[in-house]
Design a protein that fits this description.
The protein is an alpha+beta fold and about 50 residues long. The chain has one domain. About 25% of the residues lie in helices and about 35% in strands. A three-stranded antiparallel β-sheet has the order 2-1-3, covered by helices on one side. A hairpin with a 5-residue loop joins strand 1 and strand 2. The model has no long low-confidence stretch (mean pLDDT about 95).
Length: about 50
């Protein structure tokens, strides 16, 4: 099963959307700065 998710950056108030088969792992990667597209936008939080 795949999930579509939406993150909100607290730094610049922009949204990021993505898709993954392992939601917990992917959110952890975003939170830890391992994803290039959101690393400079941290902190991010899952909104949907």
């Amino acid at each position: 099963m795949y999930y579509t998710y939406v993150l909100l950056s607290d730094a610049d108030r922009r949204f990021y959307t993505g898709a993954t088969s392992d939601l917990r792992k992917r959110i952890a990667q975003h939170t830890e700065g391992q994803v290039r597209s959101t690393a400079y936008r941290r902190p991010v939080r899952l909104v949907y």
